Amino acid sequence: MGHKSHPKSLRLGYTQDWVSKWFDLKKMPDFIEEDYRIRIFLKNKLKLASVSKIVIERSVKSLRISLHTARPGIVIGKGGQGIENLKVNLEKITLKKITINVIEIKKPELDAQLVSENIAFQLEKHMAFRRIMKKAIEKAISSGINGIKVMISGRIGGAEIARTEWIKNGRLPLQTFRADIDYGFSEAKTTMGQIGVKVWIFKKELFKKKTIQELATNSIIKNNK
Fold first, then answer.
1. Residues 6+ apart with CB under 8 A from 99
2. How far apart are CA 60 and CA 36, in angstroms?
3. pLDDT tens-digit profile of 150-193?
4. What pLDDT is attached to residue 176?
């Protein structure tokens, strides 16, 4: 996870999945731009809905959009009116038939994007940055994760010179591909300038190697047979 590439790029197809599921070389530039406009529109429209991820799937004449949110009630609205309004607006943008799926995030404190957005929101309210970071880490650790790192950069606390502050708790093997590490980034727009917030959450190892003792016992059992 270097600074020159997105932290999820090396894990695509291995522990991470694509957020745009389509492939068309001829129309790729148009589709990338359209996906960007869709995401910007939904993020601005659903600021209070805690939307973590927007997955776009394409077919010939239709679009399927999956919204991963911690507050599905705000997205759906009364009697489904919220989703219907979103469909109408998105169909005007794309000129295609839209299907929207709402997927609930049951533990928002384990979602790196939502944690970063929550920290950015509190920084905009001029709360103490160390207290915010420590509180977010305590909530995540108490939920049973293996490790977390929170980093903020900018004119923290209204200082004249920008700096970087970070807090880490637990393990965070960024170079291990089998490690399921979630990454989130957001920006806090304060009166003294923008402050960037990055969050890494190490949830679990997806493919654990067997210990030497387990391999030895298995070999003994095979030999006895």
1. 62, 63, 64, 65
2. 19
3. 999 999 988 889 999 999 998 988 888 888 888 999 999 988 88
4. 81
- What are residue 14's phi and psi, to 5 degrees? -115, -65
CA atoms within 13 A on the CB side of 160: 0
Beta-bridge mates of residue 182: 201
The secondary element (H helix, E strand) that includes residue 53 is strand 51-58
Q: Alpha helix locations (H) across 95-201?
A: 112-124, 129-142
Tokens of 153: 């950069």
Enter the tokens of residue 186.
Answer: 């957001």
In the chain (225 residues long), the average pLDDT of successive 10-residue segments reads 66 83 89 93 90 91 91 88 91 90 91 93 91 92 91 90 92 84 91 92 73 50 49
The angle at the Cα of 156, spanning 154 to 158, to the nearest 5 degrees, equals 110
Say if residue 64 is exposed, middle or buried (CB neighbours under 10 Å; 0-12, 13-18, 19+): middle
- Six token digits for residue 71: 């507050």
The pLDDT of residue 174 is: 83
Which 3 state secondary structure label does DSSP give 28? helix
**122 with 114: CB under 8 angstroms?**
no
DSSP 158: G
Give the type of residue at 21.
K
Tokens 């003294």 found at? 192
